[in-house]
Design a protein that fits this description.
Radius of gyration: 31 Å
Shape: flat
Number of strands: 0
Distance between the termini: 86 Å
Order of helices and strands: HHHHHHHHHHHHH
Largest sheet: none
Helix content: over 70%
């Protein structure tokens, strides 16, 4: 750049001098464009380098699917580490249909017991929702497999833990429906069944939700008469969620018939 300024400051004596300056300007512009292109390309090049390294690591013969399934099982069993457990569950969900090795690894009694222990420790915190979501997706896969559903049914306090989550998340339709789907699949593909005590808890839960539905409906009507639009929308959203939760629980009526 300093060279360019030095050339530009010199007086133009003749036509050849002007052509020389124009040529120098073109060269300087090319250098600047090249420097900017390299500067902008560094993050993308770094991303490509990391992706290549990651792909090479995954393709390493030493990282066989059996070893990766073993590592994922250890992640699922990790106590008090929600992120690691989520990673382990996600691995088994992605590989469930692809590998019998993965199915056998995650359906061992120890792994299922550890998974149920981890989700039982979850509360209503937003940070724990990702673990519950992937865990119930994985449990539904296990429960839907007639070969492995019995192992889940024999897991200690399996149905009690799921019913506890139904009661805990009676205002969250997605989690509640996931729990209901696991129970339905488990009862269909194994010898699991809901006893009178469990069915009684579910009936009580449905009564609570029906009462909440009545409250939300009255609140929505009251806010509508008062002209409070925002409050009315909020109440109607809560009413819709309550209806969805009640519809999910009604699926269990076939088990009590």
């Amino acid at each position: 750049r300093r060279a360019l300024h030095r050339v530009m400051r010199q007086p133009v004596m003749d036509g050849k001098r002007g052509e020389k300056i124009e040529s120098n300007i073109v060269v300087a512009q090319a250098y600047v464009r090249g420097w900017l292109a390299r500067k902008n390309a560094v993050p993308k090049a770094e991303w490509i380098r990391k992706r290549l390294k990651h792909t090479t690591t995954r393709a390493d013969p030493r990282h066989s699917l059996r070893e990766r399934a073993k590592q994922a099982a250890m992640l699922v069993c990790a106590p008090h580490n929600l992120k690691e457990c989520v990673r382990g569950c996600t691995f088994f969900i992605d590989h469930w249909e692809l590998s019998e090795t993965c199915r056998n690894a995650v359906t061992s009694a120890d792994v299922l017991h550890a998974l149920m222990r981890n989700i039982r420790s979850c509360g209503r915190s937003t940070k724990q929702v990702p673990l519950l979501t992937v865990a119930y997706d994985l449990l539904e896969l296990v429960a839907s497999d007639s070969e492995h559903a019995s192992t889940l049914a024999d897991s200690r306090d399996c149905l009690n833990i799921i019913v506890e989550h139904m009661q805990m998340f009676r205002d969250r339709p997605s989690l509640l429906e996931s729990a209901v789907n696991v129970v339905l699949a488990l009862c269909e593909n194994s010898n699991a069944h809901l006893g009178r005590k469990v069915m009684g808890r579910i009936e009580s839960l449905m009564e609570i939700i029906r009462s909440n539905r009545t409250v939300h409906r009255r609140r929505a009507m009251s806010f509508a008469h008062q002209g409070k639009h925002d409050a009315e929308v909020e109440a109607r959203d809560a009413l819709l969620q309550t209806e969805q939760c009640l519809a999910a629980l009604k699926k269990l009526n076939v088990l009590g018939a």
